[in-house]
Design the sequence.
């Protein structure tokens, strides 16, 4: 919920209000806006970061909130769009819906494999965490109330997947007041690529005095801009040369996104309300979202079909009411996500054949090395997540206030990955079969079920020591369990030990030949938060926080490796929330110091298998700040920045000591003490200026924004860094202008005006010391010109 003060050129603000945003109030008469008093006061933003409605300026947490109007003004449509506006957030991405999210430098450069560590940043859709192992849901951002980014471990109110912070996507809820809606249509063209567009709309429907519904729908076609160009590979063992002539295509990484959301809100009586919602989305992508610099800008040479189908839905129920004078909330949700992937994996075959002669082992039924031993991947991932939370909150006007609750979530992940080579020796040939039993042309199979459970009890007390000084303390007691069972590896004709040769029972996971992994690990512990807040006056507040966060341990897919332990993060923070110049200037910020203990580090080991070990210790020191200044009723300036100094505080040796702790005393560490942590740039910032003006009976605006991201590495280890290379700093700029009447809007926008080519992620298809000679770069989207038309009713 966001409150709106009718000030400035308010009629224009009905569709482009204060830069830090207030939700559009569609259908408000123009006369109401024309009669409103002009002012430079910045609009209030109401957030729910502490599980209750509060003014952003009263919340003693480092939090950035992008209101619904701000999201519209900045042209935000997906994950990449809003993350660039959050300086404390960094990320790695390989494709839409497959991104790793990090906050405050808490990143080790793990590859995000499906059997890797749980995320260190929790992403929530309303009340439910929606972060899966391979990244959070890439929710289409339309008719969204706000995006909240809570930096640092919260300690009490959020759990396992919020070790370093939390991002919350809050949707607009059904409104009882009146019937209204909106439709938006966009057409766009991408430099070096194709054309795309979108159709989006919503309608709010009061059904009775106590029942209202809201229905939202969207369809978006994103243009491709990477070319799959002609290329060849010559395999040393067979001497044969293959080509990709049948796969050559311009702009082959296009995608189609469609989905919808329906919510029903019922006032059961004067104190109890139930809101049920169903949201779903389908994203179909073609091609690959990275390019090979050796082939040229935005060009690659791949040899097999590459597609990604990401389908998910979430059903949620929230019930609010009162028990005596206390507020009670139940929030429950079920999420189902299915991904189907086809991926070229030719680099693996080519480099292992080139460097180690593996082509001799990849033969046909007669035992002759295959002319084309190229591999490709066919994978299916199915996620199911259920979560339930019940919490009680005491009256907010009492001197002593309390929040208490219980939380439970269960995530199940069905994993199927087939690494295939066409023509591979099978049963009945002159040589032993190289296939996994029952899986034609499959050299390697992963068929597993992973389950992550988390149960917690939490509570928080706040006491006003004086009218200005408040002390808050909270504790979260948790218990988690991680299990991984099923099959991974080769058939017995290819390996006597890794795969079917190590099975100890029949299949417990359907479609697998047998079982060679069945392990689980349990742990329990606690995290806390202690906060002291001092209210200098009605417009200024300072606070100090000591909080902790954790990430559960788990099972390594390579069953011979020991489980990895949970890692913990300790945060010491001082911050301020201030408003100046009669409410026209808002300046918030925080400085902090973090200690990351025995952090989990994922690498690609032999056979491309993810290995997770507790690495070492790290420390992070930083500062973050954001400013909004309404210079005049028509001109608003805003900016945000984050400075992050993250480095190892002990050596990373790459192996464990005999007692199972990370070894830090070794003659040649893979990363010595003082090595900068990867992924997060030392400096990230953004700036925006927006000017609104009348044009006859219409309202107009012009807007410009810039984003700067400093250089960073993708890996912690020095040898791998030297192979992959550093990601250079980049600056992007966006421009937009538009006109609006009472019922329609028109916006012309140019994003990435200078066509800056940023590197969002750099990687090799297999271990860097094998495949690193061909490094791929995931770029930002090239310059895009768009025209957007909207109609309110």
Sequence:
């Amino acid at each position: 919920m966001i409150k709106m003060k009718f000030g400035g050129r308010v009629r224009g603000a009905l569709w482009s209000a204060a830069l830090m945003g207030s939700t559009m109030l569609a259908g408000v008469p123009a006369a109401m806006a024309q009669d409103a008093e002009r002012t430079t006061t910045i609009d209030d933003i109401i957030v729910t970061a502490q599980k209750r409605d509060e003014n952003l300026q009263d919340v003693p947490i480092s939090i950035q909130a992008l209101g619904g109007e701000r999201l519209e003004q900045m042209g935000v449509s997906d994950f990449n769009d809003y993350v660039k506006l959050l300086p404390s957030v960094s990320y790695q991405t390989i494709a839409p819906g497959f991104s790793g999210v990090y906050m405050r430098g808490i990143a080790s450069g793990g590859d995000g494999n499906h059997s890797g560590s749980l995320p260190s940043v929790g992403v929530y859709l309303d009340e439910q965490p929606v972060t899966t192992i391979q990244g959070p849901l890439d929710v289409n951002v339309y008719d969204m109330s706000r995006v909240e980014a809570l930096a640092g471990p919260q300690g009490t109110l959020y759990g396992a997947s919020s070790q370093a912070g939390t991002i919350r996507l809050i949707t607009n809820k059904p409104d009882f007041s009146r019937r209204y809606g909106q439709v938006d249509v966009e057409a766009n063209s991408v430099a070096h690529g194709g054309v795309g567009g979108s159709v989006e709309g919503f309608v709010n429907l009061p059904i009775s005095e106590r029942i209202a519904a809201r229905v939202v729908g969207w369809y978006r076609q994103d243009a491709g801009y990477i070319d799959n160009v002609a290329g060849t590979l010559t395999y040393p063992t067979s001497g044969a040369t293959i080509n990709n002539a049948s796969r050559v295509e311009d702009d082959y990484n296009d995608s189609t996104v469609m989905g919808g959301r329906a919510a029903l809100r019922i006032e059961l009586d004067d104190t109890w309300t139930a809101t049920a919602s169903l949201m779903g989305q389908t994203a179909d992508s073609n091609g690959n979202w990275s390019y090979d610099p050796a082939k040229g800008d935005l060009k690659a040479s791949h040899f097999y079909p590459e597609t990604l189908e990401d389908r998910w839905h979430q059903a949620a129920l929230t019930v609010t009411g009162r028990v005596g004078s206390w507020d009670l909330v139940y929030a429950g949700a079920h999420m189902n996500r299915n991904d189907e992937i086809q991926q070229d994996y030719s680099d693996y075959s080519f480099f292992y054949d080139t460097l180690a002669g593996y082509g001799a082992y990849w033969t046909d039924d007669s035992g002759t090395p295959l002319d084309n031993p190229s591999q490709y991947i066919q994978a299916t991932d199915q996620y199911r997540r259920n979560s339930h939370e019940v919490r009680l909150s005491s009256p907010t006007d009492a001197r002593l206030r309390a929040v208490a609750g219980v939380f439970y979530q269960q995530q199940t992940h069905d994993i199927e990955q087939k690494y295939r080579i066409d023509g591979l020796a099978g049963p009945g040939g002159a040589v032993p079969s190289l296939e996994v039993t029952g899986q034609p042309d499959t050299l390697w199979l992963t068929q597993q079920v992973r389950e992550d459970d988390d149960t917690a009890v939490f509570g928080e007390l706040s006491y006003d020591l004086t009218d200005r000084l408040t002390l808050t303390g909270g504790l979260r007691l948790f218990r988690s369990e991680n299990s991984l069972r099923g099959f991974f590896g080769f058939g017995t004709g290819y390996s006597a030990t890794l795969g079917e040769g190590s099975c100890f029972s029949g299949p417990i996971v359907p479609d697998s030949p047998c079982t060679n992994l069945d392990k689980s690990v349990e742990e329990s512990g606690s995290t806390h938060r202690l906060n002291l807040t001092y209210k200098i006056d009605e417009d200024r507040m300072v606070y100090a926080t000591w909080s902790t966060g954790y990430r559960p341990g788990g099972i390594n897919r390579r069953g011979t490796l020991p489980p990895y332990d949970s890692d913990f993060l300790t945060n010491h923070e001082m911050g301020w929330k201030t408003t100046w110049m009669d409410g026209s200037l808002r300046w918030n910020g925080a400085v902090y110091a973090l200690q990351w203990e025995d952090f989990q580090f994922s690498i690609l080991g032999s056979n491309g298998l993810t290995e997770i070990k507790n690495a070492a210790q790290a420390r992070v020191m930083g500062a973050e700040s954001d400013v909004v200044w309404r210079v005049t009723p028509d001109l608003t300036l805003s900016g945000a920045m984050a400075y992050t100094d993250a480095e190892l505080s002990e050596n990373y040796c790459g192996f464990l000591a005999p007692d199972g702790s990370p070894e830090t005393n070794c003659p040649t560490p893979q990363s010595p003490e003082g090595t900068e942590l990867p992924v997060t740039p030392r400096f990230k910032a953004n700036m925006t200026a927006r000017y609104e003006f009348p044009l006859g009976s219409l309202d107009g605006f012009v807007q410009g924004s810039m984003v700067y991201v400093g250089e960073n590495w993708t890996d912690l280890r020095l040898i791998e860094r030297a192979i992959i290379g550093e990601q250079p700093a980049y600056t992007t700029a966006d421009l937009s202008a538009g006109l609006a009447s009472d019922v329609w809007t028109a916006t012309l926008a140019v994003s990435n005006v200078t066509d800056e080519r940023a590197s969002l992620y750099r990687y090799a298809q297999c271990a860097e010391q094998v495949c690193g000679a061909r490094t791929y770069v995931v770029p930002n989207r090239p310059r895009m010109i768009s025209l957007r038309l909207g109609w309110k009713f």
Notes: Confidence is low (pLDDT under 50) at residues 1-36. The CA atoms of residues 87 and 641 lie 5 Å apart. The first helix runs from residue 10 to 16. The helical segments are 10-16, 30-35, 68-73, 79-83, 346-356, 718-724, 768-771.
